[in-house]
Amino acid sequence: MNHTATTIDARPELIQIRDATLAYPTASGLPVQALDTIDLTIDNGTFVSLVGPSGCGKSTLLKILAGLLRQSTGDVFLDGDELTGPTPAVGVVFQQPVLLPWLTILENVLLPIHVQKRNANDYRDRAHDLLRTVGLGEFSSRYPSELSGGMQQRAGIVRALVPDPEILLMDEPFGALDALTREQMNDELQRIWLEQQKTVFFITHSISEAVYLSDRVLVMSERPGRIVADFSVGLSRPRQLQDMNTPIFGDLTAEIRGLLNAKGGID
User: Fold this and answer.
1) CATH 3.40.50.300 describes domain 1-89+197-267
2) pLDDT by residue (tens digit) across 76-114?
3) What is the model's pTM?
4) Phi, psi angles (nearest 5°) of residue 70
5) C-alpha span between 129 and 141 (Å, rounded)
6) Which regions of 63-128 does DSSP assign to beta strands (E)?
7) Are 202 and 48 in contact (CB under 8 A)?
8) Which DSSP string do the residues of 177-232 spell out, in sequence order?
9) Minimal CA–CA distance to 173: which of 197, 205, 196?
10) Residue 217 and residue 62: Cα distance in Å, rounded?
11) At what angle do helices 179-196 and 149-161 cross, to 10 degrees?
12) Nearest to 113 by CA among 153, 159, 44, 48
């Protein structure tokens, strides 16, 4: 079955990757090819997920987009400018929230502002507003140990959003959560995305999570990773959990799973 996206306004390409590869040096002198030729464009305001087998280079590609790794060959552009290193235009949410235990939740979410040498007072109201948005308004003066895992991950999302980046990169942010909390966080992330309209690049091992959240689902091959398929998700928003029971959802997840099984599987 061919799957087409819901109609959206034409948007400029915010992310462009052209012929990008990455090879890691090794002690033996023989490089390990992590990424094969990657060609990818992502429009402003879209939610794109990436799935693929473990070790295929998903996180490596995310680190390139974050400016934390430099591709071996090819070019990466953000909003038309070449990406040469970390930039305030990109926020990152990691697999673990990595909150500093000696700082309050408000201090943790303002940490990128201090790192970027901005005036924290200019962002304090935004931080409080975002914490209220994710249901953490009354926990701003609490410490990470006083919050559940899901609440800590919400704080991690707020921390990435406080500097108001154009792009949000998310590396399996809900992988360590239990199934019920993960479903709740999927709905929370969808709501935040609908309000903030950030461009999101989301890595996950869950095919259903990718389809539920995304406008597009990219499939990566085994290492050296390359994008072998690009699926558009034809589900209207906002989505609800019962949408997972619809034929279009089931057909698309089955098609992606079949492709991954043919290409080497997924966890």
Assistant:
1) yes
2) 999 999 999 999 999 999 888 889 999 999 999 999 999
3) 0.88
4) -105, 130
5) 14
6) 73-78, 81-82, 90-93
7) yes
8) S-HHHHHHHHHHHHHHHHHH--EEEEE-S-HHHHHHH-SEEEEEPSSSB-EEEEEE
9) 205
10) 15
11) 20
12) 159
What does the block give as tokens for 51?
């799935």
Q: How far apart are CA 265 and CA 267, in angstroms?
A: 7
H or E stretch including 19? strand 13-24
Q: Return the beta strands (E) in 83-184 as ranges.
A: 90-93, 167-171
pLDDT digits (tens, 9 = 90+) for 2-25: 444 333 444 578 999 999 999 988
Domain with CATH 3.40.50.300 in the chain: 1-89+197-267
Angle among Cα 159, 167, 15 to the nearest 5 degrees reads 160
> CB burial class (10 A; 0-12, 13-18, 19+) of residue 243?
middle
